[in-house]
Design brief:
This protein is α/β, with parallel strands linked by helices and 326 residues long. It has two domains: 7-125 and 252-319, Bordetella uptake gene, domain 1 (D-Maltodextrin-Binding Protein, domain 2), CATH 3.40.190.150; 126-243, 3-Layer(aba) Sandwich (D-Maltodextrin-Binding Protein, domain 2). It has twelve helices and ten strands. The chain has helices at residues 7-19, 44-60, 75-82, 97-103, 140-149, 164-175, 189-197, 208-216, 240-243, 264-278, 281-290, 299-319; strands at residues 33-37, 64-68, 90-95, 116-131, 155-158, 182-185, 203-207, 221-225, 251-259, 293-298. Helix 6 (164-175) links the parallel strand 5 (155-158) and strand 6. Helix 2 packs across helix 10 and helix 4 crosses helix 12 (299-319). The two termini are 18 Å apart. Residues 16-23 have low confidence and may be disordered.
Length: 326
């Protein structure tokens, strides 16, 4: 049995710690607010961060800066944010790969979850299965046929082994007929997409928002999305459920955390500002173009979602014999 810490279990303690030792309703923010994105530029998390950066700055009345820190399937940037001062000026934007990290903890590595408090479940959306125009794979069914004809030979890029995209790919492969491919790890969705466009790998699983613009421009081919319905902005891209894996749904999500001792009232004010931004029509339209859906739920709901995702990923990892560092 994997030993892991529940984000729900830690929520009450984090709130109590954050409330004590802070003066209620201190002026905030009075300087630049930093958001760490634990991936290189060009991926789905970075795409969302750039959408909200300017409107969030306007809402807070202070500059919001994005710091990309890639590596270790998101672990490097997450570790940096967890160690940052809990002064209300450091936040972390993660996707469900953080849940994958919790489902597959690296033996001996510093636990990151106890050092963080959930703030907002911000958006949800599908993962996407992409290929390049020269691959000969025009549809998701072509992908399945190729995987069946050459077990283990098809190269499928993922933003890190043990990432949410890797585990989502494993879930999809199981649902599509227990297929076997070779997963190729990258430091993030951006580098993966560059290699896929160049034709250096056969296919890739990334956040749909990251690859959708290149698919629309003809540099990539979007074979399927993992949501229960087609994206409103990309009606021509089918779901995996309707093509190769009936009933399959596995969405990705993004949310904000802060160093555990960050004052509860500051976390609440950041959450309120973010929710207001997510209700702006221009932001809604831009997120829809990327295939994202705003949620804006609070830290308690985020914690519940996080734990459910960990359970799903831990299950497929055990079934497919995936261990941290594979």
């Amino acid at each position: 049995m994997l030993k892991r810490r529940s984000l729900v279990a830690g929520l009450a303690g984090a709130t109590l710690l954050a409330s004590t030792g802070s003066r209620a309703q201190e002026p905030w923010p009075t300087r630049t607010v930093k958001i760490v994105v634990p991936w290189p530029p060009g991926g789905g998390v970075d795409a969302f961060a750039r959408v909200i950066q300017a409107p969030l700055s306007a809402k807070l009345g202070q500059t919001v800066v994005i710091e990309n820190i890639g590596g270790g399937a998101g672990r490097v940037g997450t570790q940096t944010a967890a160690r940052a001062p809990a002064d209300g000026y450091n936040f972390l934007l993660v996707n469900d790969t953080f849940a994958a990290t919790e489902a597959l903890p690296i033996p001996g590595a510093m636990p990151l979850l106890p050092a963080l408090a959930p703030v907002t479940f911000a958006i949800s959306g599908p993962q996407g299965l992409f290929t390049h125009p020269r691959s000969g794979l025009a549809t998701a069914k072509d992908f399945v046929a190729a995987a069946k004809s050459k077990p283990g030979k098809l190269n499928v890029g993922v933003p890190g082994l043990g990432s949410s995209q890797h585990l989502t790919s494993e879930l999809l492969l199981r649902a599509a007929g227990d297929l076997s491919v070779t997963h190729v790890p990258y430091r993030g969705g951006g580098p993966l997409l560059q290699d896929l466009i160049a034709g250096n790998i056969d296919a890739g699983v990334v956040t749909f928002a990251a690859g959708a613009p290149q698919a629309k421009g003809g540099q990539l081919v979007a074979l399927a999305v993992t949501s229960d319905k087609r994206s409103a902005a990309y009606r021509d891209v089918p779901t995996a459920s309707e093509t190769i894996a009936p009933g399959f749904v596995q969405t990705t999500w993004q949310g904000f955390l802060a160093p555990k001792a960050t004052a509860a009232d500051v976390r609440a004010r950041f959450h309120a500002a973010l929710v207001a931004v997510l209700k702006e029509q221009a932001v809604i339209e831009r997120l829809e173009q990327l295939g994202f859906e705003p949620t804006g739920l609070d830290g308690a709901e985020f914690a519940k979602l996080f734990d459910r995702t960990v359970d799903t990923f831990a299950g497929i990892a055990k079934e497919r014999n995936i261990a941290a560092g594979d």
